[in-house]
Amino acid sequence: METVLVIGSNSFSGSDFVDLLLTERDYRVLGVSRSAEKHELFLPYKTNPNRDRFRFYQMDLNNDLPALVALITAERPAYIVNFAAQSEVAPSWANPGQWFQTNAVALADLTIRLKDMAFLKRYVHISTPEVYGTCEGVVREDAPLNPSTPYAASKAASDLMLLTLVKNFDFPVSTIRATNVYGAHQQLFKIIPRTVIYLQSGRTIELHGGGHAVKSYVHIRDVSVGELAVMERGRTGDIYHFSPDAGVAVRDVVRLICERLGKDFEASVKTVAERLGQDKAYVIDSTKARTELGWAPRVDMEQGLGAVAAWTRTYWDAIMAHPLDYIHKP
Fold first, then answer.
1. Domain range 188-215+246-279+300-320, CATH class
2. Which of 74, 197, 224, 293 has its CA 20 to 30 A from that of 205?
3. Which residues contact 278 (CB under 8 A, 6 or more apart)?
4. CB 222 within 8 A of CB 242
5. Fold of 3-181+217-242
């Protein structure tokens, strides 16, 4: 039985990927995150019937690299999928060094060691479309990098570091850039779960810049399925996009949630200032993943939003015990 190491297993995307691995494959799965395992509110794999094939290790990329390298050397995973990152955009302006330390420097320190581990079949790097800046028109995997925020710049730096390892050592990395993921178990401050929670608790939803920025919402399980395909069948040095067919303005998603929950949109929202460096649109082309990997999004917005609403009802007491705003942890 081969082993998969998931770095950042406590993250929204990482935890869903762990859950998919335990459900769809027979891998041994190791999870690493800097914080202790969270409540099942955020970790779907904790209720997975195959959880006995998963082991968790609390390690910080920035402070525990020797221990992580020792774990990798001992366990010899065939695959490593790295979700670990400082990923929030707005706080990256106040602490850019922390974003570069985690997203670029720590990644460079780790992967320069991984390049000599012959047992590693594939290293999957989770990047972001934000490295392109505003994505309008047909944005394919070879689009130039044009980041607009410290967060995006730090991710672009990590992408370029990995490119040097491919060029010089044939390091088996495949890179993924997926658009805006959503679904049950997401961080509570993200726009879709926050909207559902605010509407159900009578609070007003703030729309930055009026919510006119265009996002491409894709269900987390669809992206996890794509990530698994890249892990097993991706090509060294290649980038893969995962996105829906079209983008949608944030305000229109909020409006749809209001309609589902029987709330008046205009009475439920207010406009606040746009975030610094906010790109106008994230709409990327996923033709390559669709043709080479047979990937396509399967969960439509209606189904996905319904599942988020059901999740909030199931875990309402736990949700009310957690903060609803982003809290930065250096």
1. alpha beta
2. 224
3. 89, 148, 208, 209, 213
4. yes
5. Rossmann fold (3.40.50)
